[in-house]
Amino acid sequence: MSYYADIAISILILMTLGVSLNLLLGYAGRVSMAHAIFFGIGGFTAARLTLPTVEELGGVATAGLQTGFSWHWVPALLVAVVVAAVAALVISIPAVRLVRGEYLILLTLAFQLVANQLMGVLDKVTGGPYGLSGIPPIQLGSTPLILPEQFIWVMLAAAVVAIVICWGLGESPFGRLLKGIREHESAVASVGKNPVVPELLAFSISAAIAGGVGALAAFYYGSVVPSNYSLTYSIFIVSVVVLGGIGNLSGTVVGAIALGLLEPFLREYVGDEAIPWQTVIYGAALVVMMRLRPEGLLPEGFGPGRLLNWRGRKAPKVVPTEEEALARLSQDAPEVVTEGEAEPIVQVLDLKKSFGGLKAVAGATFELERGKVTALIGPNGAGKTTIFNMICGTLRADEGRVFLRGEDVTGKPAYQLVRKGLARSFQDVRVCQRLTALNNVALGVQNQPGERVSRLVLRPFATRTAEKRVRQKALDCLALLGIADRAHLRVSELSYGDQKLVAIARLLATDCDVLLLDEPTSGVDPASVEKVIDGIARLRTLGHTVCLVEHSVHFVQRLADRAVFLDQGAVIAQGTVDELMNRRELAELYFGT
Amino acid sequence: MQPILQGRGITAGYGKRRVLSDVDIHVAPGEVVGVLGHNGAGKTTLLKTLIRMVPLTSGEIEFEGERVERVSSVKMVRRGMSITPAEQPIFRDLTVEQNLELGASGVSDRQEIRRRMDEVVEVFPVLGERRSTIAGRFSGGQQRQLSLGIALMAQPRIMLLDEPSIGISPAVVGATFRTIRELAQERSMSVLVVEQNVKAVTGIADRVYVLRNGSIVLEESGAEAQQREVWWDLF
C-alpha cells in the first residue's frame, strides 16, 4: 500500500509542477527551462527554516549535523512560496522585457545550470552537494505525517489547490490577457494594455506554486539534494506539459500520470535494468507526439473549461440586434459632430523620418478633423504607412510633433495613446487565432478589474459581474459589425474578412474616439469588402474620427470624407476626396506621365 | 487565335488571406498585355500564380493549349515562360556574363549559349561592352536591361514582367517600354506586364486589364485605355 501511495505522491508532485508551468508555458506562451530550480528554492528554504536549532541539538554544531531555525511547517511553507516568487521575479524582469522566443529558453536554461551549480557550492546555505537532511515531517495536531498513505492527502490537496489557482487564473480575464500577449504582444499594447506586468505575474505565480510544492516535498522526503533539481528534471516537467497539451490543464494531469507511471511500470514489469531506458522512452514518445499531435494529447480548449462559459465557447443566447447594440454603444461613444465647423482633433506637425539615406517622410503637416474619415493616399513609396506608424507610436519620428486634442503625444507608446483616446489596427489583422471572436474583442475593453490578479483574488464576485458587462459590450461591438452570431467561434475558424471585422470591433471596444485603420480592405474577398466598408461607416455614425491608409482609391472614394495626398514623403494636397480627384497634377503623380 | 496563356476563374492567396478572386485573363501569341492596379491589388500574385509559384485555390490555367495547374515553376520556364521580378531582378554579385548564363541554365550547349548571348548583346549593347562588370555596379536602368537580357536568354515565348519601371529614372521609363514592345514584335513573343505606371503601359500594350483588390474591373484595348482621362475609380 505504502509503495503505491509513494508512487502516487511523486506523480502528484510532478502534476502540480506541470500545472504551474503550464500557466506560464500554455497561457503566457513563455518557455521556462528552470522550473526545477524554483521547486528547489522552495525545498531548501523550507528545509533551513524547519530544521532544529543548534541549542535543540545539544548546543554544539558538529559536522554532519544540520541545523536551522526550528520553524513550524506552515510559516516555512509560506516563506518558501514567497522566496520562489521573488526569485522568479528577479530572473524574469530582464527575461520578459528583453528576451523573446528561443532566447528566453536559453536564458532560463543558463539560469537553471548556474543556480543548480550554486546549490552544490553554497554549502553554508544548502549543505553542499549532499544537501540537507533530517527535515521534520508535517505535524497535523500531534500526528506527524510520515507514512505515504498519510501524506498523500496533503499532496492531493496541494495539487487541487494548484489546479484551482492556475485554472481560475488561466480562464479569467487575466488569462485572456495572457493569451492575447502570447499571440500578439503588439496587438495587446495597441488596445491599451501594458503587456509586461501580466507576464511577470505569470512567471512569479508559476514559480511560487513550484516553491510551495518544493517545501511539501522536502517535508515528505526529509531531505533536499541539489541533484534532484537538475536540468533533467526541468526538462521532464516541460515534457509533461508538452505531452499533455500546452494550455490545457487536464492535459497536464494526464501527462503527469502517463510519464510518472513510466518508471514504476518499468521497474515492476521489466526489471531494474530497464530504468536507464526511461529517458530514451520518453524522449522517443515526445518525438512521436510532435509528429502526430503537436498540440499534445488534449489540445487547448478541450476539456472541462468548456463546461463553464467563462471561455465563451457557447453561442450567445441572445444576439443583440444592430439597433440595440448601437443604442448601448452610443452611451460610451464620442459626441457626434454636427455639420459645420471643422475641428481638428489630431494635428501632425512637420513629421520627418529617414531610413539610412532614404528620406521616407520629409516634413508632413496635416490635421484630422473630428468625426470625419480621413484617408492617406499617394503612389507607392509616398510614406503613407511610415506617417501612420509615427502617429500611433509604433515608429519614432526623427523630427516633428503629433498633438491629440492639443496635447503633445509624440513618441508615446501605443498603450498610453489608447488611454488618451487613440487606437490603431494592423494591416495583417493580428487577431488572436486561438481565442474566440468575443474574447478578442473583450481584450479591447478598458479598465477590467478581472485583468488584475489582486482583484480576482480579493473581489471574485465583483470581477464576475464586471466580466458580464465586458462580455456584453464585446458582443455589442460584434453585433454592430454584423458578426455577433459568430462570437463564440475561434478566430481561426473565421474567414479573413470576418477577422478584419473582429479587429475593428476590438478597436471599437476600446472607446477611443480616434481610430487609425491600416489597409482595412486588403486581402479581403469582394463579398466581405462590403461588410468592412459598412463597418467603417458605422464607426463614423458613432462619432469616431477615423484615419486610414488604403491603396485602393476606389475604396477611399467610398469610405473617406477627406484625403491627404502624399508624394515622396511630403503632403502635396489635402481636401475632400472629390476635390483631390479633380486635380490633374495629382493624377499625373499617381498614374505616371 | 488560340491564346498562348489563359487563366479562368483564378482564385489564390496566402493562407486565409485572399489576394485574387475569380480572375479571367488571356494573352494571344505576340500580344503585349498590361495589368494595371493599385498597390496590393494582387498584380504580382497574379504573375506568380500564372508561372505556378503560388498555389491556386481554384481556377484553371492553360499554357499553349495544355492545362498546367499541376506543373512546377521550373517546368513552366523550360516550357517557354519567364518571369522578371520587380525588386532585385538580377544577381548583384555576379558579372553581367554570369548573369546572362544563368538565364540559359536549361541549356547545356556552350555554343548555343554564346549564340543567344550575342543576340541579347545586339539588343542591349551596354551589356556587351561591360561583360565582366559586377552587375550590382550598374545603374537602375542598366540593371533593368540586364534583367530583360536574363529573361531573353531562355528564349521564352511569353515574358512576365513585374513593374519594370521600378528603380529606373523617369527619363528612361519610356525607352525601356519601347524596347519591350520592339522585342515582342521582332520575336513574335508575348508579354504580360504588370505596372502601376498607367501611361507607360497604355503606350505599348495591345490590351490592358485593371485589377482592383483582387478582381478584374476593366478590360479594354490599349488604344481605348490611352484615351481614358480618369483612372481614379479603377484603382
UniProtKB/TrEMBL annotation, chain A:
**Which region is the signal sequence?**
none
Q: What is its main location?
A: membrane
**Domain of life the protein comes from:** Bacteria
CDD domains, per the entry: ABC_Mj1267_LivG_branched, TM_PBP1_LivM_like
Molecular function (GO) terms for this protein are: ATP binding
Keywords noted in UniProt: ATP-binding, Cell membrane, Membrane, Nucleotide-binding, Transmembrane, Transmembrane helix, Transport
Indicate whether Nucleotide-binding appears among the record's keywords. yes
Q: Which SUPFAM superfamilies match?
A: P-loop containing nucleoside triphosphate hydrolases
Transmembrane intervals:
6-25, 71-91, 151-170, 200-221, 233-262
- Residue ranges of domain ABC transporter in the record: 346-593
Is Lipid metabolism there in the keyword field? no
**Xref: Gene3D superfamilies:** P-loop containing nucleotide triphosphate hydrolases
PROSITE patterns xrefs? ABC_TRANSPORTER_1, ABC_TRANSPORTER_2
Enumerate the subcellular locations listed in this protein's record, separating them with semicolons: Cell membrane
Record membrane topology: Multi-pass membrane protein
Which InterPro entries does the entry mention?
AAA+_ATPase, ABC_AA/LPS_Transport, ABC_transp_permease, ABC_transporter-like_ATP-bd, ABC_transporter-like_CS, LivM-like, P-loop_NTPase
Provide the protein name.
Branched-chain amino acid ABC transporter ATP-binding protein/permease
- Give the source species: Nocardioides aquiterrae
